[in-house]
Amino acid sequence: MNFKLNKPELLPFKKEEKVIKQSPSNIALIKYWGKKGNQIPANPSLSFTLSKSYTETEIIYYPKKDKGISIEFLFEGEKNEQFEQKIIIYLEKIIEFFPFLNKLRLKINSKNSFPHSTGIASSASSMSALALCLCEIEKKHYGTLQNKEDFLQKASFIARLGSGSAARSVFPYAATWGEFVENPASADEYASPLLFELHPVFKNYRDAILIVSNKTKKVSSTAGHALMPKHPFAKARFKQAKNNLKLLLSALKTGNQDTFIEIVENEALTLHALMMSSNPGYILMEPGTLQIIEKIRQYRQKTGIKLCFTLDAGPNVHLLYSINDSDKVEKFIGKELSAYCENNLWIKDEIKANT
Ligand code: DP6
């Protein structure tokens, strides 16, 4: 697919128009860690798409005479200069795919469904919501992207240029991003939906996000990715990710929760091991992170309930479990895990399999 919009004529409208889109956050099970060139991942990744943690972005736009990017950015109704600058740089990067950005004044208003104080990385939801809005403007005024697959593919491509993990958020329930042999349609430039339905055991899977700390990370993901090309274990890691992806895809298809647990926890610990063994090395886990991990493993052993954890590039723990175990697991969280969370805060999210 050619992502460039090759219709330079003026938009067929004069007055103010509006688009509005919601896009969720996602949790990677196979981690994207390391990139090359223009946001090309060093290895393929796979994530579950969340449903309750999302960004809603609205763009009000109208034609202007002078050329160049012109925006006003509001976050939750308030002007945010820092985000505005970031968005201007991003829009300049993608203007070749949306030439109309030269001709419009955009008023962007964004808000998150999750509280500010959670420290949840919101680049995936915010960049994908913005990309979806821009594709919607193209669709509305140029008659392109009418087909849903084309629409989502371009949105994913554009979101990736803002933040790699955002490429996966445009697809419901699960997505992969990056080329791998088992899916000939997979690509480094955009994410792809799964080729099969999730086994029933993984449908409506739950993700409890345990907020161990809500502070801004010491080292951003972007800075972490930049340490990977010179990482002594890079080659082995990229190979491991491909192999783990293959095993995980098979587990998701067949419903093998034991393999799921083994791979998902291995990926989480590998991600943090890579950070610790980078040059310079750094630690994003907190004491509470390790205590929660230990408790989860003990609880699994004691009860036989097949829950497991994964980690983002930060101290918070994502606890994954089946909808059938949700009562028991949520009691366990309240009794034994929430004490390790900042202000006892944890967020109940889920993977919506039927959207
Ligand atoms: C650990 O997508 O935030 O969450 O492309 O530089 O914006 P940039 O990085 P980002 O990295 C996410 C890293 C991760 C793993 C993942 O989501 O796959």
Mean of all residue-level pLDDT scores: 94
Overall shape: it is: globular
Q: For the report, how would you describe the main beta sheet?
A: 7 strands, mixed
Q: Give the cofactors and ligands.
A: ligand DP6
Strand content: 15-25%
Distance between the termini: 25 Å
Q: What is the CATH topology descriptor of the largest domain?
A: Ribosomal Protein S5, domain 2
Task: Lay out the secondary structure.
Blueprint: E1 17-30, E2 35-36, E3 40-41, E4 45-63, E5 70-75, E6 78-79, H1 81-94, E7 104-112, H2 123-142, H3 148-162, E8 174-177, E9 191-193, E10 206-210, H4 221-226, H5 234-254, H6 257-276, H7 287-303, E11 308-311, E12 317-321, H8 326-337, E13 346-350
Parallel strand pairs: 5-7
Antiparallel strand pairs: 1-4, 2-3, 4-7, 4-8, 5-6, 8-9, 10-12, 10-13, 11-12
Helix pairs in contact: 2-3, 5-6
The chain binds ligand DP6.
Ligand DP6 binds next to α4.
